[in-house]
Amino acid sequence: MGNSRLTTRILMEMENLITKSSTRENITSRFQELHQSILRKHYNAADVEIDYHNHRIKMDVVLDDGEYDPKTINMVVSTLPVNLFYKNLCDFLKSCLSKDVKSLAFYASLLKQYTDKDIAMMAL
Fold this sequence. Notes:
The protein is an alpha+beta fold. It is built from four helices and three strands; from the N terminus they run ααβββαα. The chain has helices at residues 3-21, 29-43, 89-95, 101-115, and strands spanning 45-51, 56-62, 79-85. Strand 1 and strand 2 (56-62) form a beta hairpin. Helix 2 (29-43) runs antiparallel to helix 4. The longest helix has 19 residues, at 3-21.
């Protein structure tokens, strides 16, 4: 499978997962974690909170990557508080998907975690 086909497949599977996870009856705590993961990755946010009722996303965007290590407790990290409004959660989350190799590998791991689909990244 070529790089562009693999990229297309991963993005298509992610869009399907976002569509499934964004319907009102499917927004479980598990899918809330998925939404937060997508937003954390896209915005490089240390903390993400989604208010599904009021269509708001509050997060702390990390200003300097050198200060932030997601594997440890970070006591001093320069962040910018952000409060976003979204009209349609599904469309908003899909707009956060990127095509770079690092993001695609992240999405492949999310797909494995949330759908049991294992999409090999060896071609990238």
